[in-house]
Specification:
By secondary structure, the protein is an alpha/beta fold. It has 16 helices and 15 strands. The two termini are 42 Å apart. Bound molecules: pyridoxal-5'-phosphate (PLP).
């Protein structure tokens, strides 16, 4: 018999919660619990305040415990706990759809509601295939993603993801090819904004379409700024180039804005920040300020209308989820847009940005820092790996920060930050001072 993978001394049965993306055996030894959240802080059960450098998980963009959102959820639960969206709906769903499309880039004037980013991506991929099918081009089934792209954990999102280790255990996926990451440390390290235009990166899609017959490709999907793969902003001209090539070949362009949506770059979506409009946008997280699970696919009138040509009694898109447009989520979504308007969250984000960027870049002189990338209120700090011990330096630094009261993420040796957009300048300074102190302790 093989040895048990569970170390002696554990009774896993006493702890039935199998947590996502968590090394469970290590976690059970050293659990981390947050009991409350206020503004830009979490509180542990013993009352320790932890500065939230991640806006939860890239979602609490307007800060924790926004009273208007809390009240909207409470009120909604007392009025309409649930109604299906299959062949019926409710006022908040219609109101939120309208307001969301007004918030979205011009031309994206329809929304399909789901419950998470993963569902949004799988839905967008299905809409892309369905769109071509409805137009008599059912042979367009392939997708093109990008290296280091993260698109959630459904089989569709995993297929277009550019992170190999996420796929290793799960067998055959959808047919997808991948663009290279448009990043080259030698010429792009410490770029204060978008890196210089990069010819090789821009030419990559054309090169791929010489290998993949363009007439078989349904959609290209990218995060406008690669997020959890390590915060890589697009070089200047790159997104424009993708748009032009997709148009030339009749391929749909999908921006996965699950992270970049809802103000991360100071505009509603990154699409508006970079001035490039895709055919579909996937969103989630910040939609409800993280308070209720929700996702959505925003799509152009042209994509929507392609489905509307069949018999009028037919269901145009045989797709949906029990909790699509859940009343609590719609109420939270509407309240989030109210908070954005009343508290000028986008203006706050834009005003706070220079201090955020400059304070981040002040870390460039730390000996182990080899690159810092910024896109709006996203920041990645690349550390040189310890020889023969990849990820150790990043993990240790993240741990020291947590001990000092700052929550951030490390992806290998890259430290990632994505705080609430309402973080005040003195708190931003405190955040980077905590990282600097941790870096000084990590050899
Ligand atoms: N797409 C992107 C760009 C994401 O960053 C994420 C999650 O981080 C997802 C999709 C998946 O979202 P969810 O975890 O809500 O399914």
């Amino acid at each position: 018999m093989s040895a048990s993978p569970v170390p002696t001394g554990f009774d896993n049965r006493r702890d039935p919660f199998w947590m996502p993306f968590t090394p469970m055996r290590g976690f059970r030894r050293e659990p981390l619990l947050f009991e409350r959240a206020e503004g830009v802080h979490y509180l542990t059960p013993d009352g320790t305040r932890i500065l939230d450098g991640m806006a939860g998980l890239w979602c609490v963009n307007a800060g924790h415990g926004q009273p208007r959102i809390v009240e909207a959820i409470r009120a909604s639960a007392g009025v309409l706990d649930f109604v299906s969206s299959f062949k019926m709906t409710h006022p908040a769903a219609r109101a939120y759809a309208r307001r969301l499309c007004d918030f979205a880039p011009e031309g994206l004037d329809h929304v399909f509601f789901v419950n998470s980013g993963s569902e949004a991506v799988d839905t967008a991929l299905k809409i892309a295939r369905g769109y071509h099918h409805a137009r008599g081009q059912g042979g367009r089934t392939r997708f093109i993603g990008r290296a280091k792209g993260y698109h959630g954990m459904g089989f569709g999102g995993l297929s277009v993801s550019g992170i190999g280790r996420h796929k290793a255990a799960f067998g055959p996926l959808l047919e997808a090819a991948h663009l290279p990451l448009p990043y080259e440390r030698a010429s792009m390290a410490f770029s204060p904004a978008q890196p210089q235009p990069n010819e090789a990166a821009s030419a990559a899609l054309e090169a791929l379409l010489q290998v993949q017959d363009p007439a078989t490709v349904a959609a290209v999907i990218v995060e406008p700024v690669t997020g959890s793969g390590g915060v890589y902003p697009p070089p200047r001209g790159y997104l424009e180039h993708l748009r032009a090539i997709c148009d030339r070949h009749g391929i749909l362009l999908i921006f996965d804005e699950v992270i970049t949506g809802f103000g991360r770059l100071g505009t509603p979506f990154a699409s508006q920040f970079y001035g490039v409009t895709p055919d579909l946008i996937t969103c989630a997280k910040g939609m409800t300020n993280g308070a209720v699970p929700m996702g959505g696919v925003l799509l152009s009138g042209a994509v929507h209308d392609a489905f509307m040509a069949g018999p009028p009694e037919a269901i145009e898109l045989l797709h949906g989820y029990t909790y699509s447009a859940h009343p609590l989520a719609c109420a939270a979504g509407l309240a989030t847009l109210d908070v954005f308007a009343e508290q000028a969250i986008l203006a706050q984000a834009t005003e706070g940005f220079p201090h955020w960027r400059d304070t981040a870049f002040a870390l460039r002189d730390q000996p182990s820092v080899v690159d810092i990338r910024i896109a709006g209120w996203l920041c990645a700090i690349d550390l040189a790996p310890r020889p023969g011990a990849d990820s150790q330096r990043g993990a240790l630094c993240a741990r020291l920060c947590l001990e000092a009261g700052l929550l951030l993420r490390n992806v290998g040796d890259t430290l990632i930050l994505s705080p609430p957009l309402v973080m005040q300048p003195e708190t931003v300074s405190e955040l980077f001072a905590t990282i600097a102190a941790a870096l000084e302790r990590v050899d």
